[in-house]
Design a protein that fits this description.
With 146 residues, this protein is mainly alpha-helical. It contains 4 helices and no strands.
Length: 146
């Protein structure tokens, strides 16, 4: 393939690439838990409740963004009434799924930060588990043909 040739994007190739990215990001989520069991924060003073509540609120907002992307934007792409060419559809599916993954990872990272700072488990465990659940919800699959 020459460098100046356009890259052909078809739905099967995009789906395969998305599944690889998904698996790598899900693996990194599990690595966060492993890393947290091996390291300790230098401070023994946990952050105050206001800070933890703020981080939790940011995690909830990013989780809501993931749910919107997954169940509104991606669902609309798959059930589009108007015909859309394969290249544009593949590009939009790729972008939407990657954003889904990034925001799912961000939700779990908020939990990671709180756990690293020795925060309250009532704050960081739901964020971390929520990030993992959101990542599982964003698993890429082909739309069902009617």
């Amino acid at each position: 393939m020459l460098l100046n040739q356009p890259i052909v994007m078809d739905s099967r190739r995009v789906l395969k690439a998305l599944r690889i990215v998904w698996a790598a990001m899900l693996f990194s989520l599990f690595m966060y838990a492993f890393v947290l069991t091996r390291i300790r924060a230098s401070s023994n003073i946990p952050p105050d409740q206001t800070f933890q509540a703020g981080i939790t609120l940011m995690g909830i907002v990013t989780g809501a963004v993931v749910l919107y992307l997954r169940f509104v934007r991606i669902a609309a792409l798959y059930s589009s009434i108007e015909p859309i060419d394969d290249k544009t559809l593949a590009r939009k599916i790729w972008t939407s799924h990657v954003f889904c993954y990034v925001f799912s990872e961000t939700t779990a990272l908020f939990g990671f930060v709180l756990a690293f700072m020795r925060g309250d488990p009532n704050f960081y465990v739901p964020l971390y588990l929520g990030g993992v659940l959101l990542m599982v919800l964003c698993f890429p699959r082909l739309p069902e043909k009617e």
